[in-house]
Amino acid sequence: MQKAMELLVAIGEAYDAERMVPVSRAHAASSGQAGDLYFVKFLADGGARCKVPTSTNPVYDIEYFDKLFRIPEDEASVARRVMEAYKRVGAIPSWSCIPYMAENIPLYGEIVAFSESSATPYVNSVIGARTNREAAQSALAAGVIGKTPEYGLLFKENRKGTHLVRVEAVLKDEFDYTLLGYYVGKRIGYGIPVLTGISRRPNTEELINFSAMSNVSGAISMFHIPGFTVEASTVEEAFQGDIPEDKITVTAQELKQAYDEFQTTSAQIDFVMLGCPHYTLKQVEEVAKLLKGKKIHDGISFWICTSVTTKALAERSGFVDIIERAGGNVVVDTCIDEPCWIAYKDKAGMTDSPKCAYYRRFKEARVERLRDCVEAAIRGK
Amino acid sequence: MKSSETLLKCHKIIGGCGQGEALVSHEPICFYLTDPKTGVVRERSHELAGKNLANKVLVFPSGKASSVVQIDGLFKLASNNVAPKAMIVKDVETVLIVSAFIAKVPLVNRLEKDPFEIIQTGDFVKVDAEKGIVAIKKRKY
Predict the structure, then answer these.
(1) Assembly ipTM
(2) CATH no. for residue B74?
(3) Is-catalytic flag, B66?
(4) Superfamily of domain A263-379, CATH level 4
(5) How far apart are CA A259 and CA A178, in angstroms?
(6) CB-based contact B32 A189, cutoff 8 Å
(7) Which residue from B minimizes the CA distance to A121?
(8) Is A263-379 in the same CATH topology as A2-156?
C-alpha cells in the first residue's frame, strides 16, 4: 500500500498536482514481464487489495502453451507469478487489452486510471472518460488506493487539440486506420491530434486500431475526430478556441510510407498471427467467413488472439469451430508480444498489426490486412 | 579551450544523483527497443540506432511506446546495470515516471535552459535530482 501511495505521490509531484481525486475503475496493463512482476508482487505480498474494479491485460496461460512450445522455466515462472499476484490483489482476471469493450467499461466523464496503448486513447476520445496515460503500475496503484493525482487529462483545458491533421487519404478499413495511427503518432510524438477530412463514421475496430498504433509509435493519449468522437463536434471546439501548434496532412503516400516501413521480408512465412489488439467478435467472424470450408496450408501455424469473453461468444456463434476445422487456433489471455511465442523468435510471420513487427519479437514480419493474411495462410505463401 | 562548468536548475521527478557522458536524442525513446544486456538501441529508424545508453546521462524529449514495454525495457537495463545514470526530459509523462521509479533512475525536467541547446552528446553531465541541479561540462575539442 505504501509503495503504491509513494508512486502516486511521485507522479503528483512531477505534475504539481494539488490533490488526489477518486477513480471509479482502473485497467492495469499487466504483461508477464520482469518489471511488472516486481511491482505487483510487492503490493500483493504487502496485503494490498484493489478498492475499485481493476482489469488486467494479456499475460499467457502456461498450461496451454506448455503443450505447444518449450517455454524456458524462468519466463514461465514470471508469467505464473504475475497472474497469481494480480489475482491476489483482487484484480479482474480479464487478461484482455480491450477491457473497455466488455469486462471493465467506463462511462462518459468518469475519472479512471487506464493503462495500455489502445485503452488510454480509446476511453478518453471515444468514450469521454478521463484518464492520463497510465503505466500498469500507476494504474494498479490507483486501483489499490482508489485515487489518482489530479493533473493532465483530468482537466478539460488539457483535453484540447494540439495538432491539426488533415486526412486526404481515403480510409477503407481498420488496416488503414492502423497505418494512419502509426504515421500520426510518429509525426506528433506527444500531443492531441484533431483529425479532419474523415467523411465516413469510423467503426469500433477502426477506432481501436487508431488508438493502439498512435500510442505505440508516439504517446498519443487522446484525439478528436470532430463529429464522431464525443468531446468535440467541430474543429473549433476540439481546439477550445486555440490555434493548432502544428498542421500535418496525410495522403495515400504517407500511408504507403508507413506500410513500407513495417515490411521486413517478402520471403516465405511460417505463421500468421492476428488479434493485436485483441480481435473483436466481428473480426473473428470475418476470419471464420474467409476460412469456411478451407484449409490452412501445411507448415503454417495460424493464430487469433482474443479475450475469453469474445471467444465464448465466438464459440456459441460457431466461428471457433470453423476456424479450428480449417486448422487455426483461437487463443485467449495472451498477446503477440508475450514470451510464450518464443518458438517464433527466428521465424517469419504475417500479421495485420505492425505492433508485432515494431517490437521485433519475431525475426521477420509481413504486415497486411486481415483478408490478405488469411488468404496467405490458405495459399501457403 | 578551457572547459568550465555550467550549473542549471531543474525540477526533480525521481530523486537520486547520477553522472556521466551525455547522450542526446531529439526523438522520443522506447527502452524496450534496446538490447537489455548491453543498452544498445536497436530501433532501426531511430537517430540513436546502434548507440549505447548504458551509464549515459540521457537527454531526450519524452518516452514513447506502450506502457507495458517501456517499464520492462528500463527495468531490464537496470537489472543488468546498463541503464542510463540519469535522464533529462522536456515532456514528462506518467509511463516514463513509473519506469524511472521502478528502475531507480534519477529523472528531471524543466531545465532553466533548453537542454537541447545547452547539452551536446559527449558533454559531461551531473544530475543531482535531490537538489534540483544539473552541472554541464562541455566536451573539449
Answers:
(1) 0.78
(2) 3.50.30.10
(3) yes
(4) Aconitase, domain 3 (3.30.499.10)
(5) 9
(6) no
(7) B66
(8) yes
